[in-house]
Specification:
Layout (H helix, E strand, L loop, with lengths): L46 E5 L21 E5 L2 H7 L6 E5 L15 H9 L4 E6 L4 H10 L3 E4 L5 H41 L11 E7 L10 E7 L5 E8 L4 H19 L4 H15 L7 E8 L5 E7 L5 E4 L2 E5 L20 E4 L4 E6 L16 H14 L4 H16 L7 E8 L2
Parallel strand pairs: 1-2, 1-3, 3-4, 4-5
Antiparallel strand pairs: 6-15, 7-8, 8-9, 9-10, 10-13, 11-12, 11-14, 14-15
Length: 432
């Protein structure tokens, strides 16, 4: 992010003597560089690397102190090659002489080339630019390029430099934290846009059925979980609906759920249904899953063009709920429930024919809706509890989106807070 530019003014000088060169540390083996950090507790010693053309004539005073009064360790380097060797993990700040020549560059090149080289060499370290008195414009430009501050060579003393080091280190830390926060926000926004784009758009053009859905991922701050659903209408007028659940609710499960949903839509539009469709989806799952123990439950419904009957296939999934005028809401038969996808090679999934009648509401859901706890004990809501809840809400006149919203909110309330599992619910309504 852009760095604020200090006002172009001379830094007040305090009387001081010239500093002798700091003793040069013995060569050390190269080690993987870590981000330079500062801890304000008593066990941490600030370390400064001075990169100056003539360390013997350096303006660094004999004693530099941190905010706790502890001495700041000083290392010196005569050139960038030596500086790279001395730039170890425990260096917190670099004091760079802008007059230092850059290897391989002529005097006509960029006058801040040495700074750019050091910033590339040490992107995570605080940098103080050292320039001649009166060259405030060059110092300000150094800050624009990436230095934390600039200092005048002939107006430097121990107190001023000590304070500048502490300020530069803390400013670098703050800038780094702010940059990471901004990058995290951008990644989160990109992820949310991606996840939102992966949520299904029902294809029901030409159908008289009304559609509503409710989706709540179990992952914090996510839009997509391991649950998935879709609804499409094929050219013959049949409306196909599906809901499924990949075991687990992390990002890998969410990605697999999206793959299965897209595969289901493509296979359905290609004319597959029932056992043939589920068998192909199992092949997709087996090829795409990261672990052989991962499986997915699935419920598919194909509603005839006249809307009065439907075919139902269950692969280890809870049976849908149907509500009709004059009849209490109930679960559709689930005696022929086949195994979840990915559990048994060569498995079969019988397709059951179900009579719906002229007017009905059909609700498909994942187990996140029924596995929430009821109160402080270990009791679960279960399918019976869900059926009773939906019956009551229907009697109160709730329909469509309002019904699904009330159902999910009540399940969360009974659970005493957010549900641990993903929840997906979809509702199809036909008026007589």
């Amino acid at each position: 992010m852009p760095v604020p530019i200090p006002r172009q003014r001379a830094i007040p000088a305090v009387e001081s003597g010239q500093a002798p060169a700091a003793p040069k540390d013995p060569p050390s083996k190269e080690a993987p560089r870590k981000e330079a950090t500062v801890d304000n507790n008593a066990t941490t010693q600030l370390s400064l690397l001075v990169i100056e053309d003539d360390p013997g004539g350096s303006t660094v005073v004999p004693e530099l102190l941190d905010s706790a009064g502890k001495p700041i360790r000083v290392r010196t380097a005569r050139n960038l090659t030596e500086a790279e060797r001395l730039l170890t993990d425990d260096v917190h700040c670099i004091l760079l002489d802008l007059a230092l020549p850059t290897p391989g560059r002529s005097d006509d090149d960029d006058e801040l080339a040495v700074l750019r080289h050091v910033l590339e060499l040490a992107p995570r370290h605080a940098v103080l630019a050292l320039t001649a008195s009166g060259d405030a414009e060059r110092g300000a430009e150094a800050v624009r390029v990436g230095a934390q501050d600039y200092l005048f060579r002939d107006e430097l003393d121990g107190r001023l430099l000590s304070r500048a080091i502490r300020y530069a280190v803390e400013r670098k830390r703050s800038d780094t934290a702010e940059r990471r926060l901004a990058e995290g926000r951008v990644r989160a926004q990109e992820n949310r846009r991606l996840e939102r784009g992966l949520l299904p758009t029902p294809l029901l053009e030409g159908s008289s059925l009304r559609f509503a859905a409710r989706y709540r991922p179990g992952r914090s701050r996510a839009l997509l979980g391991g649950d998935f659903y879709d609804v499409v209408r094929t050219p013959d007028g049949t409306v196909h609906a599906m809901i499924g659940d990949v075991c687990g609710h992390g990002p890998d499960e969410a990605a697999l759920g999206v793959e299965l949903r897209i595969a289901w839509r493509a296979l359905t539009l290609a004319g597959l249904c029932g056992d043939e469709l589920l068998g192909t989806l199992q092949e997709v799952l087996e090829h795409e899953r990261s672990d052989e123990e991962i499986f997915a439950t699935l419920c598919t419904v194909d509603i005839a063009p006249d809307g009065r009957r439907a075919g139902l296939c269950l692969a280890g999934h809870p049976s849908p709920l149907v509500a009709r005028p004059g009849w209490p809401a109930r679960l559709l038969p689930y005696d022929n429930n086949g195994p979840a996808l990915g559990l048994l090679p060569g498995a079969r999934w019988p397709r059951m024919q179900v009579e719906l009648g002229p007017e009905w509401s059909l609700m498909l859901y994942t187990d996140g809706l029924i596995e929430g706890r009821v109160g402080e004990g270990g009791e679960r809501l279960g399918q019976d509890g869900m059926v009773s809840m939906i019956r009551r809400q229907l009697s109160e006149g709730l329909r469509g989106e309002a019904l699904l919203r009330a159902a999910v909110n009540e399940v969360r309330s009974l659970n005493g807070g957010e549900l641990a599992d993903d929840v997906a619910v979809l509702l199809l309504d036909r008026e007589g």
